[in-house]
Amino acid sequence: xxxxNDDFGGFIVSKNVIDGKPIRYxxxxxSTIPQLNGWTIYSIEDDDAYVNxxxxxxxxxxxxxxxxxxxxxxxxxxxxGTDLCWQYDENGNFKDFYDLTKDKSISLKKFIRKYL
Length: 116
Prior knowledge:
Elements: E1 10-14, H1 15-18, E2 23-28, E3 36-43, H2 48-51, E4 57-60, H3 62-68, H4 71-74, E5 83-88, E6 94-99, E7 104-106, H5 108-115
Parallel strand pairs: 1-3
Antiparallel strand pairs: 1-4, 2-3, 2-5, 5-6, 6-7
């Protein structure tokens, strides 16, 4: 897939995700910085102390995020306020999302159909 980074803007990403830890949470909020798209990506290992240290995060392009988590590009256009917990099966494969705003599980297919 060819990605034009200019179409997406920057993602705020935990360094743990870059180091290969599975994604646990993603949320999108309106950014006050025009170059950012509002998406923040946390790993399964990010606790409050980790998250509260801005040195533990970097800004990545869409192309870089696609290499780590192609699913982010599929859900990119989700509305501001989207807050998702990523769920995995016993083998560590992505299973579905838990929509924290709706307080229920939702498959990728249903998420895309409903919100995108």
